[in-house]
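Aim 2, interim progress: modelling of the calcium ion-bound target.
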Amino acid sequence: MSDIPLVIIEDNDCEQPKLPLDSWKVVIIDDEQSVHDVTKLALSDIVIQDKRLEFYSAYSAKEGFDLLGQHRDCAVILLDVVMESSEAGLELAERIRHELHMEMVQIILRTGQPGYAPEEDIIKRYEINDYKTKNELTRNKLYTALATAIRSFGHLSAISESKKGLRNVIDASANLMKEHSVHDFASGVLQQINALLKISTPGIFCVSQRPLLEADNNGHLVKESYLVVATSKKFSEIYGVKIDEISQLEAREIAQLALSTKKHVFNDSMTALFLSTPSNWTGVVVLEGQVSLSRIDEELLQVFCLNVALGLENAKFFTRLNKAAYYDGVTSLFNNTGFIESAKKVIQQANERVTLFVIDIDYFHDIVESLGFEFGNKVLKAMTSNLKRTFSAHSVISRLHSDVFAVLLADTDMTVKDVVKECSKPFIVEGSSIRLGVSIGEAHHESAEANFNVETVLRHAKIALRVAKESKRGAGQEFEPHFEDEARSRLGILADLRNGLDQEELFLVLQPKVSMGTGEVVGYEALVRWEHPQKGIIPPNAFIPVAEQSGMYFDIDMYVFRKSLEILEKHPNITKPISVNISANSLHHSEFIEELKAVMNTHPFDINKIELEITENALVRSDMAIQHLNELKALGFVLCLDDFGAGYSSLSYLLKLPLDVIKIDRSFVNYISDDSNAMFVLKGMLQICYDLNKTVVVEGVETLEQVDLLTQQGVDIAQGFYYFKPMSIDEILVNAC
Ligand code: C2E
Ligand code: CA
Ligand code: CA
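Predicted structure of the complex, ligand included:
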């Protein structure tokens, strides 16, 4: 019952319909008094379509114009041609149409001279409906002319009234996205019925077919059940009920009869209009009061019913769209839009402050890629249940997009740590227990603060999330005001970076790798630097993460690759290989290998002189990345696993990949000095690497103590400030060749 567009029509909200006219107004405009007298006398007791005639007189075109201004609802004008001037009547006819905008009134022109007929173009130009000579003022002829004119007038009026009603329905349909528009739509129906059927009914309800094959509360498919979707006040207690639960017997029966016979049903006290659309949607409008079919044109009734049916069908459709606009289809939580709307309410009710957590599942993309979309959806649903269990009923929980959730709480003591703890608890998906890593951004807003709105708090939480993801995956970060300045400067950087790449402002420095046994330089790592024309040298940590998010990472990696080849080409003295960093995203890029080959073709080089460094995150079970890795191996590159030990992946998995060198992360080196456990792990790792014929490089070696410890363990190669800092090419040529 929840998705039906239910409305109660407030009777007094609807424009009161015009009551049926009890007479037709006929205006006689003629400068001869006798014409007035004869006409009135001849037609005095005539009744046309149950109504009498009511006469008004004017004796000149000018007087006629003023009189008509007060009787715009007049049905027929008997108009003399020659009055103040020889064409005064014709000129008045034009003013009636174009100044008074009386489009429906029927104008019967009367000319003095027998045999005189107005030219055809005059009839057209002045929209004259008929003409008669004055000697045709016999009762019979006048009656026939008037009856024809009045029938036309009645017909046109009905069309016009119905058009107004249709306009309401069309306008309302166009606005149905908003809730009150469903109301507009239903009142449009009521208004239209009143206008078209010329009855004033206080009681009306619309019964609409449920969408075909929609599931009921028990998950069973229901076919063709009907619900009351709109009612006037009088019927309000049956609003929302099924058709067979309508308590008023007569109303229920007439509705059911119309639906079963697929026809309109008219009886003494009620009318049921059967509605259907080309898409097989059906419904019925039941109204109190008798409708005489002779009052309306059969075709108009069909058009009317089709419009109401389409409108109601649309109303349901739009309600569903509306639902889609605010809710996420996978988890049934609010989506981004729904979140903003609901959060506004929570914010208004908060006493002191609101807290927002934006929660991002780590490596969700990899989960989907390796275990499939369906499994991914199950993870999202499991996460949803977890969140619902953890947070109070008063929180607003939403899935903002893909794997990002938001939870808004009013006046809570919960901290980001509590949330990380809750979200990292294992849960069951497809029978197995899984534990997700999450990164969380937290932001607050005090209700006393200016700018207290959901958009701000959401922006802050998202910025905090990004900081959390960059610096501490698997943890949380509370928003700090200086993040915002940094975010702004990042945006500035991004705008400049494209230009910097085009202008070749980016250049490479090389950091030597050293054999621990001999102290010899055995290779170099290429590290990018950016010389910004205003800001000076910018380190990669200030722009690589921004580039990763913007898609520019790919261009940077290709640029560095090309520059490395150029260095080798230009400086034959550099005989040891240069290793180039490849960002995780590039390795996933579908055109990565093609682009790389294109650069290789334009810069001939010895494949043994280039190594590629790939971070462990890039290799977490992505088919595309593994495929690219194999292709790189086939091309002959030496492949190096960068930052090993900083992530969470399993060593045995990584060692199955075609990697030649394992580069142990610099954080690891920090641990070994004072943690015997780390030393123990390092020993084990080295053993496995040697067994599998992998070369080991340890990076971030800064002190003699570290050098000693690593040498004792038989580490091959080291890189770090203890030996060399990254250096310009000129410095390398002098000091480290
Ligand atoms: P990374 O690949 O782990 O590079 C090593 C970083 O450690 C370099 O920082 C280097 O200067 C620094 N380093 C070297 N020895 C020591 C040491 O003894 N102690 C300490 N504390 N640090 C040391 P850098 O050049 O600032 O680069 C930072 C990161 O930026 C790199 O980490 C890499 O992830 C990224 N990056 C740098 N150049 C490129 C590039 O050309 N392409 C891509 N995709 N990423 C790059
Ligand atoms: Ca590296
Ligand atoms: Ca590294």
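The first helix runs from residue 33 to 43. The chain has a mean pLDDT of 81.
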